[in-house]
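On to my pick:
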Amino acid sequence: MQSRRELFPNVIEINYQARQQLGCCVYLIFDGNDWMLIDIGFEDTVEQIVELIRQMDFPLARCRYLVATHADVDHVQGLKKLKELLPDAETVGHPDTVKLLHSGDRITTYAEISAQGISIDMPKIKLDRSINEGDTLKLNDIEIEVWHTPGHTNGQLSFRFGRLLFSADNIYRDGCVGNIDAHHGSDIPAFIKSLERIRDSDVEWLLPSHGPPVRNNRQLLQSTIDRLERYSHRADFGTCAVDWPLMDEWDRELVEGFDLDD
């Protein structure tokens, strides 16, 4: 048996438990013998993770939920295999995630990025149930509140457990955010609103999907929000930008003429 290394009471993060990076953060929340997982990562680490859970003396038949924060391949490629190993667990995710995983959409999930030579298997899976803003996941005496936090993807969910927020790809300890990409369905104004919600909440700790936990630091959140505000008006972000002020400036110049000395 292996001793449990709780990150917070009733919360184990599998990379910390393994003392090595296995992929995205995989959170195990438990109450007594009942437990659930948030995300799973790539298929090739599923058996290692399940064996680690077994070594921590969690009954595999008592897994209640397998949760997908969103449909990115690095978060859920192993979900189908995991469901086969834990058939009694209920697979849940946002309605967009349900649709993407059932159809096996390879573009939106980042399984296929042909320009960079990326082509990863994305097993199709039909989730058991969709969840969304205001729903709760119950684990004996524990209640996990579902937040819809779009921006990185439209279907991204975060999960509040007391003073903790499992915050998916909203923000990381260094102030970076989940990547912004039109093919991915990213939405910068929605991203900003999600970050403002997190900033203004009384959550104390953010547990992201990549990297270490981070305190809900208002200054860090505001700095990131300010950066995304700038992004939304820059051509760098293509169709994810809401406008490009330079084009308005050029319109005026076309009417008024080019001033060499300006």
About this structure: Residues 11-231 form a domain with the Metallo-beta-lactamase; Chain A fold (CATH 3.60.15.10). The chain has one domain: 11-231. The chain has eight helices and 14 strands.
